[in-house]
Amino acid sequence: MKARIAVAGAGNCASVFIQGLAHYSSGQRPGLWHPRVAGMRPGDLGIVAAFDVDERKVGLGLHKAIFAAPNVAKKYIDLPESRIVVNPGLSKGDIAPHLSSSKLVTTTRAKVAEQLEDAKADILLNIISSGSDATSEEYAMAALEAGCAFVNCTPSLLLKRRTLVERFARARLPLVGDDLMSQFGGTVFHKGLVNLMVNRGVRLTKSYQLDVGGGSETLNTTNERIKLAKRIVKTTSVASEVPYKFETVAGTTDFVDYMGNDRTSYFWVEGGGFLGSGVTVDVYLRSSDGANAGNILFDVLRATYAAKKGRKSKAVGEICAYGFKSPPKKQHFEEAYRTFVADFVD
Question: Does one domain contain both 246 and 313?
């Protein structure tokens, strides 16, 4: 193990990520996008600590906690028993809607920082539920106090908080985010579609993306405050691919429990071509949220570790643009991918 990873949030994303880590660390290749990033293979990543606030997970071995309710992610492989026990996590009162009736087991920032230090963690991966903005920042502060890099996969816009960004910069620790972009999910598909149409000379006028899914992340997003925040992030990300203003909306519309960790995204794009002739695209995409995050997390964590160790210290912005919907500096997704590959993929 080279990079020692601590995980905040033992939900569906963590479940698939940890299963994938076990699977690809054994030398498996099918489905693995980039076998080597920054000189590291998946087996060079290791989980050394985990945090959650749900009493159904706290105190369990990580191999059990990631399959405990309310998680609904698919069980892809049998995991060996883990020596990592899920520790009580942080909550600043902005608890996710799906946990509002659950008993919470919480701790202090100082305790989390101490446990990160004891585990010698290099990176704290924040994959808690959407909408817990104050809690995400509290985890970032714990990472800072422990000397950890911080990867924020939630829509909480931490990289827009100047004081926090400056504190990580002074400590020479990578702060990476915000809002993880799936390998082939709704946002990147929408971005790619409008980018292609613009590059082929179609003048776009309108588009929308409507997401329907199961699992706690989608359930949380039915909360109006969280829905609006995520819609702004997704819509802004899609709009950045088009060099002029057009009407576009992207966001979650509904929760369907029996869909589990799967998601269906509906897309409609309208534009004009030669002599004003109409061009309309009307399609849908079905995917799995947890699995869609796996390859991106592998890439981002390996690159972040390299940045922390000083091998790519000036490339944090490239990591953000490659892997996240709301990076500090916007880039077209194709440009961001080419830059990331040139700097990190062996």
Answer: no
Same domain, residue pair 248 and 284: yes
* Beta-ladder partners of 47: 5
Residue 275's CATH number:
3.30.360.10
Q: Exposed (0-12), middle (13-18) or buried (19+): which is 104, by Cβ within 10 Å?
A: middle
Q: Are 320 and 176 in contact (CB under 8 A)?
A: yes
What pLDDT shows up at residue 221? 83
Place of tokens 């002074």: 170
Same domain, 31 and 84: yes
Interstrand relation of 3-8 and 149-152 (parallel, antiparallel or unpaired): unpaired
Q: From CA 110, how far away is CA 112, in angstroms rounded?
A: 6
CA distances from 232 to 26, 82, 150, 165, 318 (A): 40, 39, 23, 21, 22
> Does residue 154 share a domain with residue 255?
no
Secondary structure (DSSP) of 242-309? SSS--EEEEEEEEE-GGGTTEEEEEEEEEEE-GGG-EEEEEEEEEEEHHHHHHHHHHHHHHHHHHHHT
The domain that holds 127 is classified in CATH as: 3.40.50.720
pLDDT per residue over 87-136, tens digit each?
999 999 877 776 766 789 999 999 999 999 999 999 999 999 988 999 99
What is the domain count for the chain? 2
Are residue 283 and residue 295 in the same domain, yes or no? no
pLDDT of 311: 67
User: Residue 321: which of 344, 305, 302, 340 has the closest Cα?
Assistant: 340
> pTM above 0.90?
yes
**210: pLDDT strictly greater than 70:** yes
- H or E element: which one contains 45? strand 45-52
Examine the pLDDT at 235 and tell me if it is beyond 80. Answer: yes
| 277: containing domain | 186-288
